[in-house]
Please model this.
Amino acid sequence: MHKLILGMAAAMFLTTGVANADAISDRKAAMKSNGGAIGTLVKMVKGEMDYDPAAALAAFTTIREDMEGFEDLFPEDSMTGDTTASPKIWEDMEGFKAAVAKVEADLDAAIAAAPQDKAAFMPVFQQVAGNCQACHETYRIKK
Amino acid sequence: MKRIAAALVILAIAVAAVFFWLTAPNPLPVDILAGMDEGDAMAGERIFNAGGCNSCHGGKDPAADTLPMLGGGLALKTPFGTFHAPNISPDPDTGIGKWSGADFANAMMRGVSPSGQHYYPAFPFTSYARMKPGDVADLWAYIKTLPAVARANVPHELSFPFSVRRGLGLWKLLYLSPDPVVAIDETDEKLVRGRYLVEGPGHCGECHTPRSLIGGLDKARWLGGGPAPEGDGKIPNITPDASGIGSWSAEDIAYSMESGFTPEFDSLGGSMADVQRNIARLTAEDRQAIAAYLKAAPPVASSR
Model:
């Protein structure tokens, strides 16, 4: 009997131990790639780099690709482990999916607009960038 | 035997008397209170943003484009129990509409209510004690211009002994001081301004500094981060240590406060998101002053 309980405990430990590491590493990779693309855009916002319409379009496209299917990287068994995802994602999956859909829509609009100068780019950037914090405010915790 | 009993009674009375004397609320001096009804509401709005009063007292979904509605409501879940942010709108019945400027100043800088009770330090008067009385007067003038919200306060849910307010008098003897925390070059106006914003109205240390078992800030680990005092996760170390934000330049810090993006182009999230939006409403000079102070604060290694 004891052995059975020990065995079950070990099995539970092992399954939580692996806690869907693939989904966690996939979504981290997507966010890291987003950070790089935002970095390029912010350099142009701050004037550290001249506005380059092709570079801006490429950055928006990168983020759009990273966000495609992003909401599917949060299976139930990826709530714990090496992640800063907040349990609120799973408590409010509808709200989370709506937040992902919104940034996707804003990115589609940014790509369609393909701003040719900095004046046109600034409001488009603000519209997209506001999503980062809006989502991290609710659906991420710092660890 | 009778003598021992009598001695014990006298001792008990003496202890109670000392306790009452030590824990008595300590209002501000009369000369400071005198100017509290002559503030400038326009200047007070800037103090309001620096303090982020709205983040706790503004209810759950403060809209960015409307005037702050200070009906209270945020629940702070802490190891001591749950604190419910009260109504500080000018509503005369459920808010603070009947208060005088002196009442407001005693609340802000001494943590004392108009009826002479101690407030719990979930309300960060420990930081506001470092504010300039003129700024408190300006803030009061501004708050009086905001809409009255009718919403009855929810009592705090605390366990013994934290449920005894009088005991906070002892806590204040340990932890309430208007003195600055970090020693800096007092002739450097930018640093002095940054220190004032961070240690005073901005009350950054209230979350970013770890607390003792009885909830006092551990000033030896000032701004060193640690477990979140409420909710989940961790509060970041914002000292210039390698385990803090030592790799950030002053310009990086100021930009993160303005835009919400870190130098790694992550975004400031969680409860910092609302704080950042408030600080973004300050002037660029104020954000640069905050950054200069954070670069000058003593580095603290994160505990892990």
Notes: Chain B has a mean pLDDT of 93. Chain B has two domains: 25-175, 189-296. Residues 25-175 of chain B form one domain.
